[in-house]
Structures are given as structure tokens and as C-alpha cells.
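Inputs:
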Amino acid sequence: MRRARARLALAAAALAAGVVLAQERAIPPGELKSGSVFLGSDLRALQNDDFANPGMLWVERGERLWSELAGKKTLACASCHKDTSMRGVAASYPKIDKASGKLVNLEDRINLCRTGRMDAEPLRYESEELLALTAYVARQSLGLPIATRIDGAARAHFEAGRAAYHLRRGQMNLSCAHCHDAQWGKRLLSETISQGHPNAYPAYRMEWQTIGSLQRRIRACLSGIRAEMLPYGSPEYLDLELYLAWRAQGLPIETPGVRR
Amino acid sequence: MAARIQIPRQAKRGEVIEVRILIQHPMETGYRHDDVGHLIKRNVITVLSCRYNGVEVFRADLSSGISANPYVQFYTVAQASGDLEFTWIDDEGERGSERQSIVVKG
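Outputs:
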């Protein structure tokens, strides 16, 4: 009897926690829309065309780099990851690196492998090589839902990311939420405001005429609201990336996306 | 300069085939400035040509109005087995080429 009651209390607590979590979401899972939904049909067709999607140039380069020997130990990514597919890996990032206990994104993970296992120089953030490798790894998770974890050590980063998302910034005094939670689907000049999901990155943007990372895209938003842009690789970006991934939980990966 | 070509591996003689090419190139217009205000020199692919078994079947004069990483698509008639070879040259004189073979039956 007592055990049953305890179980009931536990279930009620879990339910309450679930409700709280659900309430935390400004956009309920059923209403999640990938950035590609807000594109014109031409760009959406370009993204879905495996050949013409210009981001695939970087995916192909990443595939070549994957087996290129580097570093003092003359190892390639493929030397260790022999028969293992990277499918599903990108969907779980950002995540806590077990060795260091730090939050890392996919770019960091690639560089951790280079410095830690290959004894090679880390690739510069936003360099062609790092974008290519990241796009190649992420492409293998095409269509898989984003499934990051925010429990354990990640929880503090998640809370920091949520705070960063809701922080008013810059001369326009706007937070991410003001556009991407409250105004998505409406027009901002000639553009439709998206929900701000990270599921297509690294993505090819027409404005850039090249491929870029999620952090570059976040910097573009910061510049748009006339806020200070932090340097690439700042911890604040990582926290925000984790929060964005949680917000987009369940959306399929589209890398390399094509965006305006 | 990396490029991707897509043509059917096999075709019937006389069949109209779709040819697609995507070239990685910045197509710098010459109108942009860098972070310190210097004009970035124009560098675009000026000529793109495709030869089918040595005979030119397609030629395009590109200019600064074409976006980065140009994508070109056209049709030609499958005549004989062999190679389609693309060549291009940009303002800096850098040449690129890529080829793909096709088997024509019938």
C-alpha cells in the first residue's frame, strides 16, 4: 500500500515536471517549423536537390578530409572511425564532453579529436576545412530528429542558454524571443521571420554566398539588432546552441540547409 | 577548384540527356570592399565550355551577375560513348576542368 502510494506520488511528480517543461516551451512540439518552411519554393527545391545544393560542395570536401592524414601521429578521422557511421551523432550535439566535463558542439568535438587523438593543430573556427568536416558529419544525420540532453552537467548550460535567449541586447533592445517566439511567421521587411531553429547548420546562405556555422548565423542576428558580437567559440554561444537545440527537439536535421 | 558534374551513366543513342554542373568559385564581383575598406579585385569565371568527345556542345560567357558557386544546366543529345569534358577559366587566369564518361547504347 505504502509502496503503491509512493509510486503514485512519484508519478504525480513526474507529471508535474512534464507539465512545467511543456509550459517552458514557447512553441509546442506540434507547431515546430524548420527554417525551410519559411523559404520560397525555389530555395526549398535547391536545398532538397542533392546535386544542386551548393552546400554539398563542402560535404564532398569533408568526405575527402575525413580520410586525409594529419598531425604528428599521421592519423585521419577514418583511422579510428573505420566502419562506424557518424549517423545520429550530430543530432545529439551540443553535449557534455565526458573527459573534460565541458559543453562542446560538433566543431569542438572535431577539434578535440584533432588535438587529443591525432596530435594535430585544431582547425580555425569558420575555416573552410572545419565547415566541410562539420557539414560532412552532420549530413549523415539527415532526417534524424534533434535529440540533445539537458540533464546532469548540461542543465546549468541549458539554463544559461535560456537566459541568453531571453536577454534584451543591443541598440534595438531585443531578445531572441521577441522575434523567434513572439513574431515568427510575420514579415520583417521582405523576409518572413523564422522560428530560429538550428537544424540545418552548417547551412549555405544566399546572403553569404557560402556555407557558415550556426555561430555565424547567431552573429548575423546580433549584428541585425545592433548588439555586440562575441568572438567565435565563446561559451555563451555554446549555451545558446544547447538551448536552441532543446527548443527544436524533434525537428529533422537538414544539413546542409539552404537559407536566404 | 572543385566541381560536381551530373549526367546519366547510360543513355540510348539519340536520347536527350540532362547535363548539370556545379563549380565552387567565389565569383567576386569587384564591387565589394574588405573589412579595412579596400576594394576586392574582381574574379569571376568568364568562360565555361563543355566538349563531348572533343566537340564543343555548350559554351557560356559568365559575368559578375552570376552568383558564387555557379550552377549550370543544359541538354544535349547522346551520340556516342565517351567523355563530357568541362573547362573553365576565371579572371585570374586559373583554369579548372572536370570530366565524366557516358555509355551510349543502340
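Remarks. The longest strand of chain B covers residues 95-105. Chain B has no helices and eight strands.
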